Amino acid sequence: MKKNLITLLRLPLILALYPLWIFYLAVMNLERARDAGTLTPHARALGMPLLYLGLLLDFLYNVVVLTVLFLELPRELLVTARVSRHKKDGRGFRKALATWFCVNLLDPYDPDGCHCK
């Protein structure tokens, strides 16, 4: 019962990450186009502000939302570095949560297939 309550309480925080995930998907798509040689100068110009806004959101979400989700202050500046650390070296719920983020939301959409190092 307690585990279900904790999961239920974290759900709004996970849903709050949705805007950041949309930015992530957009930037990964721009990276794919760049790597394929199909990113036009106009698309690059339009995408650069998206990249910088995404980095700002990434930092803010890491400091605020992930601090609550992981019940710890951040050691890293960005979400990916934090979840990568927990996936690699974490324990318990932190490792499980980080692995879930990497497997379901980050790695499948990275052009290299492995966003969480």
Q: How many structural domains does the protein architecture include?
A: 1
Strand content: under 5%
As a percent range, the share of helical residues equals over 70%
In DSSP terms, counting alpha (H) and pi (I) runs of 4 or more, how many helices?
A: 6
User: What order do the SSEs take from the amino end to the carboxyl end, as H and E?
Assistant: HHHHHH
**N-to-C CA distance:** 34 Å
Structural class category: mainly alpha
Main sheet?
A: none
Estimated radius of gyration: 15 Å
Q: What is the mean pLDDT?
A: 90
**Low-pLDDT residue intervals, each spanning 5 or more residues:** none
How many strand elements?
A: 0
- Global shape: elongated
Characterise the protein shown here.
Helix content is 76%, strand content 0%. The mean pLDDT is 90. The protein has helices at 2-16, 18-36, 41-63, 65-70, 79-89, 92-106. It has one domain. The protein is elongated and about 45 Å long. It is mostly helical.
